[in-house]
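Retro notes - structure team

What went well: the batch runner handled both jobs without manual restarts.
What didn't: labels got mixed up in the shared folder, which is why I'm recording both outputs here explicitly, each with its sequence directly above its tokens.

Job 1
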Amino acid sequence: MPVQNYSVLAGDPTAGKVISGKSAHYQITLQAPGGPFTVAVNIQSVDGSEVLYAIEEGFTPPNEAELLALPMGMTALKSKAGGLALDFVRSTVNGAPMISRQQMALLPQMIGRGSEDERMMNRARAKALENAVVTLLNMTIADKDGVIYAFGSAFSDAGKVDGIHNIHMNQGNPAGGFTKDNGAWQDGALFIHLPSKNTWTAVFIAFQTESWNTDSTGSPIA
């Protein structure tokens, strides 16, 4: 079964903080009609698999005009080609892949192993994604017209604070606890638009256990 409530959230960011725990993530607050909204960006995996990420500056989104025409707030998306839905394996921009496995950098999770020098290096590398997201957040807040577009699964928690999570690749999971999330045209990402500079930056996150060779249902092909 695919991820639930696949959506894109567009809004004005106002704050961010790290949420520690089993599934550490960076939490961004977005202001938009119906909000405020919470955006949960994974900076560590739940199952201990290593995180892959890419920060793409000078990015051009697929269907840019349609994206810019969206109202601020949460918009439900259909998981199919030809719309705003994202797919790490299938989406293209000007005939080229939107993102590839080769563009992704490894973010190590096993910080406590190795020599002290290795542990120090891994600690520094493990903060790379967090620091990059913080930098982008601050740049967007500084731009009065800056907007973050967060693709993933819409949710409502017990406190009725609406938000979005699963902001990462949602296909290619091997047999196990996350197999149920596999699906095509339902991947998550962050797109940051700074109108004052006329620039886009994209943040892509995946997990090393996820295959980039998937069938039409998002399941890995052996």
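Job 2
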Amino acid sequence: MGFFANLLINSQLDKFNAFIWNTNKNSFDPIINIKTINLDLIIGIERQKKTLLKNTENFALGNFTNNALLWGSRGNGKSTLIKSIFIELSKNYKNLKLIQLNKNDIFDIESIYKKISKYSEKRFIIFIDDLSFEKIDNEYKIIKSTLDGSIQNQPTNIILYVTSNRRHLMPRDMIDNERSSAIHTDESVDEKISLSDRFGLWIGFHNLDQSVYLDIIKNYCNHYKISYNQDIEKRSIQWSVQRGNRTGRTAWQFIIQLAAEKNLRIDF
């Protein structure tokens, strides 16, 4: 990397704290405004929040910390939690930076390492959202080799936070089929799940029960000065039934609809 390229990156890192990797330009595009919600508004996942918050703060302090795999049901706050924790901690830890890497650009991760590992005074979270593999094919093997090898050679000022709907980054039936058909079952299955094992933290997110879902609605109403009553409770339950799930995302979408009806402004 040339002198002027280094100068540009260093200038960006001082001016901004969040970026998205641009594979076409082989560079980082600053994110001016990260769309997320206040960390205090994220409830119902207290254990997950406490675990990731502590891990991230330790990382910002310069301590040796684990890569994290946030897995589980859609819409229950995996990506939001990562972004909200980053926003909260970056207020006090100016050395903390976030780089979002599209899962389709994961082959660039070694290039990213080379660009930022030299800035040892800064701490980088590389965030890969919704990573999973539908089948074992050449692309899967290449991506697995790329990410697996990168985790092993990871610079100490970089941490990986990955979200997935699957605990082992692949469908359960792929592992079950391997167990039933492989000659050397244990070795074959171990190879399939070895990538997820590289993450020291596995943080699971599961479906919400109705009481937790309603607690989230109440918390949003309180924050946005919306009077919570039996009608809102009934409508919020109907809203979740119509969508076939009770998740944090469903609750947030209901609040947006409710605020629109009341002509209230919802700020991120």
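One thing worth noting from job 2: Residues 178-189 have pLDDT under 50 and may be disordered.
We'll revisit the folder naming next retro.
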